[in-house]
Amino acid sequence: MTADGHFQVPQPTNEPVRTYVPGDSHRKSLKSRLADLTDARTEVPMQIGGEHRWGASRGDLRSPHRHELTIAEYAVGGAKDIEDAINAALAARKMWAATSYHERAAVLLRAAALLAGPWRDTVNAATMLGQSKTVHQAEIDAACETIDFWRYNAYFGDQLLSQQPYNDGTAWNRLEYRPLEGFIFAVSPFNFTSIAGNLPTAPMLMGNTVVFKPATQTLLVSHFLMELLLAAGMPPGVINMVSGNASEISDMVLSHRDLAGIHFTGSTEVFQGMWREVGQNVNRYRTYPRLIGETGGKDFVMAHASADADALRTALIRGAFEYQGQKCSAASRAYIPQSMWNAIKPDLVDLVEGIPQGDVSDFSNFMGAVIDGRAYSNHMKAIEYARSAGTAKVVAGGKGDDKVGWFIRPTVIETTDPDFKLLREELFGPILTVYPYADGKFDETLELCDRTSPYGLTGAIFATDRQAIRRASETLVNAAGNFYINDKPTGAVVGLQPFGGARASGTNDKAGSILNLIRWVSPRVIKETYAPPTNHRYPYMENDEKGAL
Ligand code: NAD
Fold first, then answer.
1. CATH fold for domain 25-61+79-295+506-527
2. Spans of the chain, pLDDT less than 70
3. Does domain 299-494 have CATH number 3.40.309.10?
4. Ligand 1 center from residue 212 Cα (angstroms)
5. Does 250 contact ligand 1 (Cβ within 6 A)?
6. What pTM value is reported for the model?
């Protein structure tokens, strides 16, 4: 027997961020887990229909800050594995859709509690090792943000279901929030563990089943997230994790008639390629797939003459260089009045040159390594490009060292060219380009900032003058989906600043909000009439004035 009740998901609060200060017991236990995982060479199979699966070959996963260190061996899947993953998702669909919302939400709430407790060190340590995050960056992402996604989504999904149509007394109108008809393809990037935690679980919460392809660089932590979700009671086959060649996997999945949606975060180029492929396959699908993608950014900091210089300098350092500038929201271009730039530059350069960087298991470091050799070489090329351009100079950093890990010093470039390539294109590394603008040319520079890059993800205005804030907010209305006033453009928190941008930055479906969950349901309206009419004639058809027109 099932008991009925209007269950309400508990109101979430954000997971408190642990500090890991010296002497703290959490610091000790995390360090010990980090040491275990460093030497463990963890095996990372695929997870298909609840079974571990090894493909035809295996790959080595290296630590970015110690590239000789193999931290995991992962499965490289082939066509049969991908086909099986799709079939496993389709086979689990009926069972999962028939599982009540409160039971599905309970899985996520339990997963959040496991991550907040016994799994926290494992997931943080795997993120530090695999993605070269400092302890603080791992904690705010892998632990806190993932927990927040799971708790808030469970709550928001409940609110969504309570949105019901009106009734007029003759019938009972109900809205049933069906999962999409087919399976969801979730594809996550290297830079946030929380995104790997959110992309497959948001559709899963709403009753969908999923084929999940994490970025290869995150396979160690993605493996632990899968194990954690299974431990929290997620049934086998609901999320199926595959690994291998991204474009081969994607080609197979995107040509399947039962593809019902894509939940993607990564580069603009890859998402546009997927969109094109879906377009080409559009006549094959049973239903139009939902395309949800959060992509690149060229995030700005705009300073007005009235800005607080200390706040601006701090925001530039944290916004541009935390996690080596590899946040989609990282400040990568700044517009500063010339005289203010002259005043803050010496201090900024000194502070940037002094940033401690190295192996993230040494907790005194502020920065680790960039993700891999390809990123390293792209960033070094960009720095060389700036060095050789007549319109730019490197004023801080500009050096790299790839002997032990992929280390690039935090770099500040100053340019006199308002259309300089590094002000337009996303680099995704620790490189900040500053365009000092002529004093008094604030309004013209707002227009410039708006038109310089194709993206529209995050941006910040620093000013104390209210009119300047208002003008920036108006002129830059479409330049950022997350707009900050006197704060750095990074660090959005689930539930507080729902995240996403438009233009070339994505479909702006705001991860971790009700707006995102809406995309994973296909509502059915049910009208149940109390007393159906039994005669097709309407009263107006009666005519008692015989012969009258
Ligand atoms: P990426 O596009 O290289 O990879 C993302 C995912 O797509 C990975 O799983 C990858 O294996 C897969 N992939 C790669 N080629 C593919 C193909 N041809 N077909 C299908 N899948 C393919 O991105 P990345 O380097 O992992 O992450 C960095 C990018 O992500 C940056 O552009 C950054 O701005 C963006 N990002 C955006 C947000 C946001 O919320 N807007 C958040 C994080 C990262």
1. Aldehyde Dehydrogenase; Chain A, domain 1 (3.40.605)
2. 1-2, 545-549
3. yes
4. 14
5. yes
6. 0.97
